[in-house]
Amino acid sequence: MKICLYLEFYNFLGGIFYKNIGTGLLSSYENQKKTLKSLGVKFTEKWDDSCDILQINTPWLKSLWLIKKARKLNKKVIIWSHVTAEDARDVFWFNKYFFPLIKKYIAYAYGLADLVFCPSEHTKSLLVAYGLPAEKLIVQSNGVDMDFIYPDARKRAEYRQKYDCQGFTIGTVGLVLPRKGIDTFLAMAEKFPKNKFVWFGKIYSALMVESLPKNLPVNVKFTGYVEDSNAAFNALDAFIFPSYEENQGMVILEAAAIGLPIIVRDIPTYNPWLKDGVNCLKAKNNNEFKTCLENIIKDKKLREKLSKGALKLAENEDIKTQSKKLLETYQKLLGK
Asked: Rounded to a whole number, what is the largest CA-CA distance in the chain?
């Protein structure tokens, strides 16, 4: 068995689209490579006629050409559904104007595959609503590499000093986009002035997304892109992720791998794998986020309970755990 992994634009113009970004898409792609290596499955990142499966991450124009080429050679095609129209709509300010077009394109492109990996049941339900047949949609977690993201006291100390994380520090990791819940993040910082709030992640130009407010609360820090995501997670005492729309939310799994108490917005994406009061706390609005934060800050036993639940979640989603399921899917697709 040989697999061609393909991520369009990864090397286009020297990787300008992916340098200094740090997205879940890139993390998933790296996890795919690590998983194939652990399974002893041969793979290439460039097209090779000898491959048995073409595995596409985010199918754009060149990907479509490759899919058609693979079809002519009777190769199997898998697409990872990292993107839906719903989550793409609020990435950049202009995307909302192209929502119907994005939806049609995704339905067409994903429809070319033999199988589509959906990172959650929610993503699968959206694609079924697009008209894609349920039988070709496989729920497959992006996973988390617990050999890459793990508790590290040295890195914690380094980044806490670098970013002035004093006292109980609350934060998140990821692209600084309105869809990710910047409004709630800032509202919580105002409600908890004695706590430090840190957002680790790339800040886009005002040409692409709505700018951050000029006058931020004094206890808030937006770091921009950071090289060491493991150190970023370790610097925090609690992880807050108020995103309004996700396909899975890989940063949640990464925060879980550190054992951080986690607070998320109560959205369909997280059902049933995130359980309120077990491996996270869920909030529907700012008042509930405030209550959750109050409870986590004050209640050490709750923090310990959520930390244990988060670590168990991460272990269940570890790429080593996920690899067996993935191999079985490949073998079944090839009729082996």
From this structure: 62
Instruction: Kindly state whether residues 12 and 81 are assigned to the same domain.
Output: yes
H/E element, 121: helix 121-129
The pLDDT of residue 223 is 96
Hey, what are 89's tokens?
């709509």
Q: Do 172 and 134 have their domain in common? A: no
Q: Does residue 204 share a domain with residue 87?
A: no
Residues 210 and 271 in one domain: yes
Q: What's the pLDDT at 18?
A: 57
Task: Identify the CATH number of the domain in which residue 235 sits.
Answer: 3.40.50.2000
The encoded tokens of residue 267 equal 């959205």
pLDDT reading at 62 higher than 90 = no
Query: Both 173 and 279 in a single domain?
Result: yes
In this structure, which amino acid lies at residue 221? K
Please indicate, yes or no, whether residues 164 and 192 belong to a single structural domain of this protein.
yes
Neighbours of 321 (CB within 10 A): 15
pLDDT tens across 259-273, in order? 999 999 999 999 999
| Number of folded domains that form the chain | 2
> Which helix (H) or strand (E) element contains residue 73?
none
- Do 128 and 178 fall within a single domain? no
**Residue 240 identity (one-letter amino acid):** I
pLDDT tens readout for residues 163-215: 999 999 999 999 999 999 999 999 999 999 999 999 999 887 766 777 888 89
Instruction: Give the domain extent around 304.
Output: 153-317
d(CA 209, CA 244): 16
pLDDT of residue 209: 74
Amino acid at 303: R
Are 177 and 311 in a shared domain?
Answer: yes
Q: Is the pLDDT of residue 65 over 70?
A: yes
Pairwise CA distance, residues 59 & 66, whole Å: 10
Q: How confident is the model at residue 8 (pLDDT cuts 50, 70, 90)?
A: confident
For the entire predicted model, the pTM comes to 0.91
Residue 169, strand partner residues: 196
Sequence-distant (6+) residues with CB within 8 A of 159 are: 165, 226, 228, 231, 232, 234, 235
